[in-house]
Amino acid sequence: MAKTVYIAGLGLIGASMALGIKRDHPDYEILGYNRSQASRDIALKEGMIDRATDDFASFAPLADIIILSLPIKQTIAFIKELADLDLKEGVIISDAGSTKSAIVDAAEQYLAGKPVRFVGAHPMAGSHKTGAASADVNLFENAYYIFTPSSLTGQDTLEEMKDLLSGLHARFIEIDAKEHDRVTSQISHFPHILASSLMEQTAVYAQEHEMARRFAAGGFRDMTRIAESEPGMWTSILLSNRETILERIEDFKERLDEVGQAISKGDEEQIWNFFNQAREQRQAMEIHKRGGVDSSYDLYVDVPDEEDVILRILELLRGTSLVNIHINEENREDIHGILQISFKNAQDLERAEHLITENTDYTVVIK
After folding, report:
1. Residue 148 forms beta bridges with which residues?
2. CATH number assigned to the domain comprising residue 208
3. What is the pLDDT of residues 290-321, one digit of tens each?
4. Helix (DSSP H) and strand (DSSP E) numbers for the chain
5. What total of structural domains would you count in the chain?
6. Which residues contact 221 (CB under 8 A, 6 or more apart)?
7. Which residue from 33, 113, 266, 310 puts its CA 20 to 30 A from 289's CA?
8. What is the domain extent for residue 341?
């Protein structure tokens, strides 16, 4: 039976979600809310949604499923507003927030006793691009789509949500909201603090040591990439997961002090173990199985500095879907190849490796 789905927030996540739902459920009606007219117009023009509004409450009573793809504070405000609206009995309400405890707690507070169902959710996918114009039906492919069930969630709720979102081609997983926030504080939230701190430190240092800017490549580039993330979103994330993130900061300070003391004492064995343990631990992590946030597959090609060499490789890859191409031209230290090509799935990666290896004598490395 066809359903009516209401997506509040037509940014990259919400608009891409609409495309994924349309892929497997073309008969579903998708309604969209967005404050800015530009994203509403794009979503309508591109067929992502069927109808749009800038009045959130107006479409809510029509929906069988409501997805709040909004900043955390606005998500909580809309949950509170939904509690006072005349919604369909049994409507499913979900969200797409990067922290879960505050949102799930708000739902259990404001929606308790209402004839609705709620399940927290966090699609762990994203891009440096923003807005409906950047929507991608494959954005969530192979990425984790995390559900954080609450007292307002039943097993039928999860099954309905998984069916609704089947066209996203994501990996569905369930976890407690508080545990979600503990885990993401370590592997997502805290790394953003580190990246921004490193950028700030380097910017100040470069005022007296100008060459620091020029030599910043390789590991520095990779470690600070996420420092370009949207500041408003990250302010909201940190303040909604405050206690856990503060614990991670204190823990890291202790670890920095330990290695600092080892350097001060000239303890060669402790320093070697510090690096070796980190290397072994990273090699053992799931990060190499491509189940996490970015879900891209990287291939590095060590190409000579010759005219048209990159065009030659791209010609070999004609018909293969590329996520990104990066030329590591400033400094070859700590990189696997001067040309870095990212793919969305393992099949395209393997095909590219075969084509380049068979048709050139360039060194190809997969990481």
Report:
1. 120
2. 1.10.3660.10
3. 444 445 688 888 877 677 888 889 899 988 87
4. 15, 12
5. 3
6. none
7. 310
8. 297-366
